[in-house]
Specification:
The chain is of the alpha/beta class and 251 residues long. Strands 3-2-1-4-5-6-7 form a seven-stranded parallel sheet, sandwiched between helices. It has one domain: Rossmann fold (3-Layer(aba) Sandwich).
């Protein structure tokens, strides 16, 4: 580790990852496990979550799964309590749980669809931070990362999703200034399009092979996880309230 004057000692810290059963959440879980973290997966996908737990354990780290609806405040509190029970601590939160919702014009998006997307993508992040951060403040060290999206700039066929990601962006910036003096840093990662279950089924093989991005491809989930791992690490000593772009392009 570089000689960073304000870096905490590297410890076997514990992380809670919402949406950690697959996609970007799974990639983040495995990358943090490689870095020596114990992982609690909070997800609605029990079978996939159990598989990810086995992969983490194969890396020599402790892992657990809790079936969790992130929109349920009590369930989110219980997931955090379970992490503390199993690992004796909670140091890291990564919020990956999210849905795209319908890709339809605005007048075909009923309020129920808007509410569903907002509850998972925004309320879930809000409740996760409310449940997890007090444990970090108690220890005087914590790192939080939430997955955002360039959709926050708007798209007429994804209005609920776009609004939710704009809200998450603001939430990260707001909480980033809340606790840095107490050692808790809050950031986001904006991945553009990564090759996950949310992206791959929506496009043709031809498009995926040449999507028109400046770098010439979409990202692997593991490339996004590299950035999340840094932001959650002891090496991150001065970044808070930021959303890091991992889009293979500027802007």
């Amino acid at each position: 580790m570089p000689q960073l004057r304000f870096a905490a000692p590297v410890e076997r810290r514990a992380a809670l990852i919402t949406g950690g059963a697959r996609g970007l959440g799974r990639a983040c879980a495995l990358r943090l496990a490689e870095a020596g973290r114990d992982i609690l997966i909070a997800d609605v996908l029990a079978e996939r979550g159990a598989e990810t737990v086995k992969e983490i354990e194969a890396l020599g780290q402790r892992a657990a799964f809790v079936e969790t609806d992130v929109t349920d405040e009590a369930a989110m509190q219980q997931a955090v309590a379970r992490a503390v029970e199993v690992f004796g601590r909670l140091d890291i939160l990564i919020c990956c749980a999210g849905i795209l919702g319908w890709e339809k014009p605005f007048f075909e998006q009923p309020i129920g669809q808007f509410d569903k997307v907002m509850r998972i993508n925004v309320h879930g992040v809000y409740l996760a931070h409310q449940a997890a951060v007090p444990h970090m403040l108690e220890r005087g060290w914590g790192r939080c990362v939430t997955i955002t999206s360039g959709a926050r700039f708007g798209s007429p066929n994804q209005v609920p999703y776009c609004v939710s990601k704009a809200a998450v962006y603001c939430l990260v910036q707001s909480l980033g200034n809340a606790w840095p003096k107490q050692g808790v840093l809050v950031n986001g990662v904006e991945p553009g399009r990564a090759l996950t279950d949310m992206v791959v089924p929506r496009f043709s093989a031809e498009h995926l092979a040449n999507p028109g991005t400046p770098i010439g491809r979409y990202s692997d989930p593991e490339e996004v996880a590299e950035v999340a791992e840094f932001l959650c690490s002891e090496r991150n000593t001065y970044t808070t309230g930021s959303v890091w772009s991992v889009k293979g392009a500027s802007g």
